Amino acid sequence: MSDIIAIVLMIGIIAYAVFGGADFGAGFWDLVAGGTEAGARPRELIDRSIGPVWEANHVWLIFSFVVLWTAFPQVYASITLTLFVPLTIAALGIVLRGASFAFRKAVLRTRDRRRFGAVFATSSVLVPYCLGAVIGAIASGQVPPGGKAGDSFASWMDPVSILGGVLAVVVAAYLAAVNLIADARRLGDDEMVEYFRRRAIGAAVVAGITLAAGVLILREYAPYLFDGLTSRALPLMILSGLCGVASLVLIVRRDTRFSQWLSGTAVVAALVAYGVAQTPYLLPETVTVTEAAAPSGTLGALLVATVAAGLIVLPSLGLLYVLDRKNLLPEEG
Known about the structure:
Organism: Williamsia limnetica
Subcellular location: Cell membrane
Helix content: over 70%
Number of helices: 13
Order of helices and strands: HHHHHHHHHHHEEHH
Family: Belongs to the cytochrome ubiquinol oxidase subunit 2 family.
Strand order of the largest sheet: 1-2
Strand content: under 5%
Low-confidence stretches: none
GO cellular component, one term: plasma membrane
Pfam families: Cyt_bd_oxida_II (PF02322)
Distance between the termini: 46 Å
Number of strands: 2
Shape: globular
Structural class: mainly alpha
Largest sheet: 2 strands, antiparallel
């Protein structure tokens, strides 16, 4: 039962990484779009692209936290006590990001729009960095077992945590650029297609360089994860690399029919590889999934609640995304 719940937790994390990651990445491109005039058209496309779905994407983050604290309470306590600083920054960033995104459209003065836009864009980079640093801290063994608190600052400032944060930002930017290419093509905006095509290529190159450096960092500072990635999770890492390269080749050739699916599959495969590499541990080499699990009655009730929630929520989310892709949703006012 505990393994099934761990898989459910991984599904929630993957969903947030793919959908929420693309959302945050759009904010990154908003940040680097340039001044008011130069960045007007990219920002208009970004607003149109994420406007209908940005709130729905955070469902997966809430879901993941609920599953973690219900099914694995001691591990949840250890993570939140040790990493409360980046988690608090991320939570504050999510709130400020959402408020700024909404208020930017409501204010009339240009300077006010700039201020809200700056908060939105900055938070869009800060949040994925902090969440990526949390994953890195867990992977490198910075979180102690037994519901105890580790070092509040050094725990998420080690090389693996920094690698996790940078990778989260870069991958989010790449996912967003690929999605924005598709949105611009659907809207018939060839100029924005080319604009985000160049940025997708640049983000892919940076991601490749970061991953290459990450191999050396993981080997030195997270040997258990490195060994898992280069053995039992190696086929998934190869799949991730092939999908990423295929997506980039299609973008370079201006053929974007399958680039969204391939880029998403690359991220999913990499995250599944991370989970497989860390198996059977939740906290590497200290706490296994079985050891951390709540009583079987709690796990059973959680699984029933998860299935019921999925039957209610997933069709609604699916309909939302389908309507958004078909341009059948009204723009936010």
